[in-house]
Amino acid sequence: MLKIAYHPIYKHPLPEGHRFPMEKYELLPQQLLYEGTCNEENFFAPEIVGDEAVFRAHIPEYVANLKAGAIPPREMRKVGFPWSPALVERELRIAQGTILGCEYALKYGVAMNIAGGTHHAYSDRGEAFCMLNDQAIGAHDLLHRGLAERILILDLDVHQGNGTAEIFADVPEVFTFSMHGKANYPFRKETSDWDIPLEKGTGDQEYLTILEEALNTLVEKVASDFVFYLCGVDIVGTDKLGTLDLSVAGCLQRDEMVLRWCQQNNLPVQCSMGGGYSPEIRIIVEAHANTFRCAQRLFF
Protein backbone atom coordinates (compact mmCIF):
# COMPACT_ATOMS: atom_id res chain seq x y z
CA MET A 1 0.00 0.00 0.00
CA LEU A 2 1.23 3.50 -0.86
CA LYS A 3 1.74 5.37 2.42
CA ILE A 4 1.72 9.16 2.44
CA ALA A 5 2.67 11.50 5.29
CA TYR A 6 0.21 14.35 5.69
CA HIS A 7 -0.91 16.54 8.58
CA PRO A 8 -3.27 19.56 8.44
CA ILE A 9 -0.50 21.74 9.89
CA TYR A 10 1.37 21.33 6.59
CA LYS A 11 -0.89 24.16 5.38
CA HIS A 12 0.42 26.64 7.93
CA PRO A 13 -1.14 30.10 7.43
CA LEU A 14 1.23 32.79 6.19
CA PRO A 15 0.78 36.57 5.93
CA GLU A 16 -1.42 37.65 3.05
CA GLY A 17 0.52 38.11 -0.15
CA HIS A 18 3.31 35.68 0.80
CA ARG A 19 4.68 34.06 -2.35
CA PHE A 20 4.95 30.54 -0.97
CA PRO A 21 1.88 28.52 -2.09
CA MET A 22 0.97 26.78 1.19
CA GLU A 23 -2.50 25.91 -0.12
CA LYS A 24 -0.99 23.20 -2.32
CA TYR A 25 -0.48 21.05 0.77
CA GLU A 26 -4.24 21.01 1.38
CA LEU A 27 -5.35 20.78 -2.25
CA LEU A 28 -3.03 17.92 -3.21
CA PRO A 29 -4.47 15.28 -0.84
CA GLN A 30 -7.96 16.49 -1.70
CA GLN A 31 -7.26 15.96 -5.39
CA LEU A 32 -5.78 12.50 -4.84
CA LEU A 33 -8.83 11.45 -2.82
CA TYR A 34 -11.32 13.03 -5.24
CA GLU A 35 -9.96 11.27 -8.31
CA GLY A 36 -9.55 7.93 -6.53
CA THR A 37 -5.76 7.71 -6.81
CA CYS A 38 -5.67 7.35 -3.02
CA ASN A 39 -8.06 6.68 -0.17
CA GLU A 40 -7.97 7.60 3.50
CA GLU A 41 -5.98 4.47 4.35
CA ASN A 42 -3.07 5.72 2.25
CA PHE A 43 -2.49 8.71 4.53
CA PHE A 44 -0.88 8.82 7.97
CA ALA A 45 -0.47 11.82 10.29
CA PRO A 46 3.10 12.04 11.64
CA GLU A 47 3.83 12.93 15.25
CA ILE A 48 6.59 15.32 16.31
CA VAL A 49 10.08 13.97 15.70
CA GLY A 50 12.33 13.43 18.71
CA ASP A 51 15.37 15.59 19.42
CA GLU A 52 17.79 12.67 19.14
CA ALA A 53 16.90 12.10 15.49
CA VAL A 54 17.08 15.81 14.67
CA PHE A 55 20.47 16.24 16.37
CA ARG A 56 22.08 13.73 14.02
CA ALA A 57 21.58 16.22 11.17
CA HIS A 58 21.43 19.57 13.00
CA ILE A 59 23.46 21.27 15.72
CA PRO A 60 21.56 21.17 19.06
CA GLU A 61 22.06 24.89 19.72
CA TYR A 62 20.41 25.75 16.41
CA VAL A 63 17.47 23.44 17.10
CA ALA A 64 17.03 24.88 20.60
CA ASN A 65 17.02 28.44 19.25
CA LEU A 66 14.57 27.45 16.53
CA LYS A 67 12.14 25.96 19.05
CA ALA A 68 12.47 28.95 21.39
CA GLY A 69 12.00 31.57 18.70
CA ALA A 70 15.52 32.81 19.38
CA ILE A 71 16.80 32.79 15.80
CA PRO A 72 18.15 36.31 15.04
CA PRO A 73 15.79 38.34 12.82
CA ARG A 74 18.40 38.55 10.07
CA GLU A 75 18.61 34.74 9.96
CA MET A 76 14.82 34.36 9.91
CA ARG A 77 14.65 36.75 6.96
CA LYS A 78 16.88 34.30 5.09
CA VAL A 79 14.35 31.57 5.87
CA GLY A 80 11.57 33.66 4.35
CA PHE A 81 8.89 32.61 6.85
CA PRO A 82 7.88 34.56 9.97
CA TRP A 83 8.66 32.47 13.07
CA SER A 84 5.79 30.91 15.00
CA PRO A 85 5.34 27.84 17.24
CA ALA A 86 3.07 26.31 14.60
CA LEU A 87 5.76 26.73 11.96
CA VAL A 88 8.27 24.88 14.14
CA GLU A 89 5.73 22.14 14.83
CA ARG A 90 5.18 21.85 11.09
CA GLU A 91 8.89 21.25 10.50
CA LEU A 92 9.09 18.67 13.26
CA ARG A 93 6.09 16.74 11.92
CA ILE A 94 7.42 16.82 8.37
CA ALA A 95 10.70 15.30 9.56
CA GLN A 96 8.91 12.52 11.42
CA GLY A 97 6.77 11.91 8.33
CA THR A 98 9.93 11.30 6.34
CA ILE A 99 11.38 8.98 9.00
CA LEU A 100 8.20 6.89 9.01
CA GLY A 101 8.12 7.09 5.23
CA CYS A 102 11.50 5.38 5.16
CA GLU A 103 10.06 2.49 7.14
CA TYR A 104 7.12 2.21 4.76
CA ALA A 105 9.46 2.39 1.76
CA LEU A 106 11.46 -0.53 3.15
CA LYS A 107 8.20 -2.48 3.47
CA TYR A 108 6.39 -1.49 0.26
CA GLY A 109 9.12 -0.15 -2.03
CA VAL A 110 8.02 3.49 -2.02
CA ALA A 111 6.54 6.06 0.35
CA MET A 112 5.67 9.74 0.03
CA ASN A 113 5.59 12.92 2.09
CA ILE A 114 3.11 15.57 0.92
CA ALA A 115 5.62 18.18 2.18
CA GLY A 116 9.36 18.03 2.88
CA GLY A 117 12.29 18.28 0.54
CA THR A 118 13.68 21.04 2.77
CA HIS A 119 17.14 20.79 1.24
CA HIS A 120 18.27 24.36 1.94
CA ALA A 121 18.42 23.72 5.69
CA TYR A 122 22.04 23.46 6.83
CA SER A 123 23.27 21.73 9.96
CA ASP A 124 23.36 25.08 11.79
CA ARG A 125 20.86 27.33 10.02
CA GLY A 126 17.87 27.54 7.75
CA GLU A 127 17.20 29.45 4.55
CA ALA A 128 14.85 29.65 1.57
CA PHE A 129 11.70 28.23 3.25
CA CYS A 130 13.71 25.40 4.89
CA MET A 131 14.49 25.09 8.60
CA LEU A 132 15.01 21.37 9.26
CA ASN A 133 16.30 19.09 6.51
CA ASP A 134 13.78 16.24 6.53
CA GLN A 135 15.61 13.91 4.17
CA ALA A 136 18.93 14.48 5.94
CA ILE A 137 17.24 13.60 9.24
CA GLY A 138 15.72 10.52 7.60
CA ALA A 139 19.02 9.39 6.10
CA HIS A 140 20.88 9.72 9.39
CA ASP A 141 18.09 7.79 11.12
CA LEU A 142 18.39 4.91 8.65
CA LEU A 143 22.15 4.73 9.15
CA HIS A 144 21.85 4.95 12.94
CA ARG A 145 19.37 2.08 13.07
CA GLY A 146 21.31 -0.05 10.61
CA LEU A 147 18.44 -0.04 8.11
CA ALA A 148 20.65 1.15 5.26
CA GLU A 149 24.38 1.12 4.57
CA ARG A 150 24.75 3.25 1.43
CA ILE A 151 22.21 5.98 0.69
CA LEU A 152 21.62 8.03 -2.46
CA ILE A 153 19.91 11.42 -2.15
CA LEU A 154 18.56 12.15 -5.62
CA ASP A 155 17.66 15.84 -5.66
CA LEU A 156 15.80 16.95 -8.80
CA ASP A 157 14.40 20.21 -7.49
CA VAL A 158 15.29 23.18 -9.71
CA HIS A 159 17.40 24.56 -6.84
CA GLN A 160 20.63 22.93 -5.69
CA GLY A 161 20.42 20.99 -2.43
CA ASN A 162 23.03 23.15 -0.74
CA GLY A 163 22.08 22.33 2.84
CA THR A 164 22.03 18.62 2.11
CA ALA A 165 25.47 18.85 0.50
CA GLU A 166 26.86 20.58 3.60
CA ILE A 167 25.32 18.12 6.06
CA PHE A 168 26.76 15.08 4.27
CA ALA A 169 30.07 16.57 3.09
CA ASP A 170 31.99 14.23 5.40
CA VAL A 171 29.58 11.28 5.48
CA PRO A 172 30.78 8.70 2.94
CA GLU A 173 27.72 6.50 3.49
CA VAL A 174 25.50 9.15 1.84
CA PHE A 175 25.95 10.16 -1.80
CA THR A 176 24.39 13.53 -2.68
CA PHE A 177 23.30 14.11 -6.28
CA SER A 178 21.76 17.40 -7.38
CA MET A 179 20.59 18.22 -10.92
CA HIS A 180 19.40 21.82 -10.92
CA GLY A 181 19.21 25.12 -12.74
CA LYS A 182 22.68 26.63 -13.06
CA ALA A 183 21.31 30.17 -12.80
CA ASN A 184 18.94 29.38 -9.95
CA TYR A 185 19.23 30.02 -6.23
CA PRO A 186 21.46 29.38 -4.36
CA PHE A 187 23.83 31.62 -6.26
CA ARG A 188 26.72 30.39 -4.14
CA LYS A 189 26.50 26.64 -4.54
CA GLU A 190 27.85 24.01 -2.18
CA THR A 191 29.61 20.93 -3.55
CA SER A 192 27.49 17.79 -3.71
CA ASP A 193 29.09 14.44 -4.47
CA TRP A 194 27.75 14.99 -8.01
CA ASP A 195 26.24 18.22 -9.30
CA ILE A 196 24.73 18.66 -12.76
CA PRO A 197 23.95 22.36 -13.39
CA LEU A 198 21.57 22.92 -16.30
CA GLU A 199 21.42 25.95 -18.57
CA LYS A 200 18.44 28.29 -18.69
CA GLY A 201 15.61 27.02 -20.85
CA THR A 202 16.56 23.34 -20.68
CA GLY A 203 13.50 21.46 -21.94
CA ASP A 204 12.02 17.98 -21.83
CA GLN A 205 14.21 16.09 -24.28
CA GLU A 206 17.58 17.42 -23.12
CA TYR A 207 16.66 17.12 -19.44
CA LEU A 208 15.44 13.55 -19.70
CA THR A 209 18.44 12.47 -21.75
CA ILE A 210 20.86 13.87 -19.18
CA LEU A 211 18.90 12.31 -16.33
CA GLU A 212 18.78 8.88 -17.96
CA GLU A 213 22.55 8.91 -18.47
CA ALA A 214 23.08 10.01 -14.87
CA LEU A 215 20.89 7.23 -13.48
CA ASN A 216 22.77 4.65 -15.51
CA THR A 217 26.02 5.96 -14.05
CA LEU A 218 24.68 6.07 -10.49
CA VAL A 219 23.84 2.36 -10.53
CA GLU A 220 27.52 1.57 -10.86
CA LYS A 221 28.98 4.59 -9.09
CA VAL A 222 27.02 4.51 -5.83
CA ALA A 223 25.75 0.96 -5.26
CA SER A 224 23.14 2.33 -2.84
CA ASP A 225 20.57 0.33 -0.91
CA PHE A 226 18.13 3.21 -0.26
CA VAL A 227 17.10 6.32 -2.23
CA PHE A 228 15.69 9.65 -1.14
CA TYR A 229 13.98 11.34 -4.09
CA LEU A 230 13.36 15.08 -3.90
CA CYS A 231 10.77 15.52 -6.64
CA GLY A 232 10.24 19.28 -6.88
CA VAL A 233 8.02 20.43 -9.73
CA ASP A 234 9.70 23.83 -10.01
CA ILE A 235 11.46 22.48 -13.11
CA VAL A 236 8.26 23.24 -15.05
CA GLY A 237 8.59 26.17 -17.46
CA THR A 238 5.77 28.16 -15.84
CA ASP A 239 7.49 28.21 -12.44
CA LYS A 240 8.17 31.75 -11.26
CA LEU A 241 11.25 30.73 -9.22
CA GLY A 242 12.76 28.36 -11.79
CA THR A 243 14.86 28.75 -14.95
CA LEU A 244 14.16 25.44 -16.70
CA ASP A 245 11.47 24.82 -19.31
CA LEU A 246 9.96 21.37 -18.82
CA SER A 247 6.32 20.68 -19.56
CA VAL A 248 4.06 19.08 -16.96
CA ALA A 249 4.17 15.94 -19.12
CA GLY A 250 7.97 16.08 -19.13
CA CYS A 251 7.98 16.39 -15.35
CA LEU A 252 5.84 13.25 -15.19
CA GLN A 253 8.29 11.45 -17.48
CA ARG A 254 11.04 12.38 -15.03
CA ASP A 255 9.07 10.82 -12.15
CA GLU A 256 8.39 7.69 -14.17
CA MET A 257 12.06 7.37 -15.08
CA VAL A 258 13.25 7.74 -11.48
CA LEU A 259 10.63 5.54 -9.85
CA ARG A 260 10.96 2.82 -12.48
CA TRP A 261 14.76 2.95 -12.03
CA CYS A 262 14.33 2.49 -8.27
CA GLN A 263 11.91 -0.38 -8.81
CA GLN A 264 14.08 -2.17 -11.36
CA ASN A 265 17.13 -1.91 -9.10
CA ASN A 266 15.25 -2.99 -5.95
CA LEU A 267 15.91 0.35 -4.27
CA PRO A 268 13.39 1.47 -1.63
CA VAL A 269 12.60 5.14 -2.23
CA GLN A 270 11.23 7.86 0.03
CA CYS A 271 9.82 10.86 -1.87
CA SER A 272 9.51 14.41 -0.51
CA MET A 273 7.69 16.95 -2.67
CA GLY A 274 10.02 19.93 -2.71
CA GLY A 275 9.27 23.13 -4.62
CA GLY A 276 6.56 24.22 -7.03
CA TYR A 277 5.75 27.90 -7.56
CA SER A 278 3.82 28.29 -10.81
CA PRO A 279 1.42 31.26 -10.71
CA GLU A 280 -1.59 28.97 -11.26
CA ILE A 281 -2.12 26.63 -8.33
CA ARG A 282 -3.80 24.05 -10.59
CA ILE A 283 -0.50 23.52 -12.43
CA ILE A 284 1.38 22.98 -9.16
CA VAL A 285 -1.20 20.50 -7.88
CA GLU A 286 -1.37 18.62 -11.17
CA ALA A 287 2.40 18.30 -11.44
CA HIS A 288 2.72 17.09 -7.84
CA ALA A 289 -0.28 14.75 -8.18
CA ASN A 290 1.43 13.09 -11.15
CA THR A 291 4.20 11.86 -8.85
CA PHE A 292 1.68 10.08 -6.62
CA ARG A 293 -0.21 8.66 -9.60
CA CYS A 294 3.05 7.35 -10.99
CA ALA A 295 4.06 5.70 -7.70
CA GLN A 296 0.64 4.09 -7.33
CA ARG A 297 0.70 2.79 -10.90
CA LEU A 298 4.24 1.39 -10.82
CA PHE A 299 4.40 -0.15 -7.35
CA PHE A 300 0.85 -1.22 -6.48
TrEMBL record:
Keyword Cell wall biogenesis/degradation listed: no
GO BP: any one term: epigenetic regulation of gene expression
Signal peptide per UniProt: none
Keyword tags: Hydrolase
Short name of any one Pfam family annotated for the protein: Hist_deacetyl
Domain Histone deacetylase as annotated: residue spans: 18-280
Family according to the record: Belongs to the histone deacetylase family.
MF-aspect GO terms: histone deacetylase activity; hydrolase activity
Protein name: Acetoin utilization deacetylase AcuC
PANTHER family xrefs: HISTONE DEACETYLASE 12, HISTONE DEACETYLASE HDAC1-RELATED
Record's keyword annotation contains Membrane: no
InterPro entries linked: HDAC_classIV, HDACs, His_deacetylse_dom, His_deacetylse_dom_sf, Ureohydrolase_dom_sf
Species in which this protein is naturally found: Robiginitalea myxolifaciens
